[in-house]
User: What shape does this take?
Amino acid sequence: MRLAALTLVVPGYAEALAFYRDGLGFDLVEDVDQGTKRWITIRAPGGGPLLVLGRADTDAQRATIGNQAGGRVWLFVETDDFARDAARISAAGGVFEEPPRPETYGTVAVWRDPFGNRWDLIERR
Assistant: This one.
């Protein structure tokens, strides 16, 4: 077995694609119209599991936007150039909660996407 995909609950498809695809350069893997919803999957440019963009359609789903992990960082992206990708994230509308900090495994900083999801940007040593 392998982890193939995770659902990321978002307020709408257009906003999510504007940030992840257009702003961060994630690859659009699939966009299938299913009538009342779309099956949209994206992947970070360097690979990894798919993110399924799930539009929130109910009050309960809308309440989870940006809080799918109860306030914890739950999405992690690795980079080979921290400064380049931090600038791209900021330019796209992501907000860093802290300056980059050294850890035993590399440089890391927590940031939020426009929907409130907390991510780590990590440059490994």
Summary: Residues 13-23 form the longest helix (11 residues). The chain is about 20% helix and 40% strand. Helices lie at 13-23, 59-64, 82-92. The domain at 71-125 is CATH 3.10.180.10 (2,3-Dihydroxybiphenyl 1,2-Dioxygenase; domain 1).
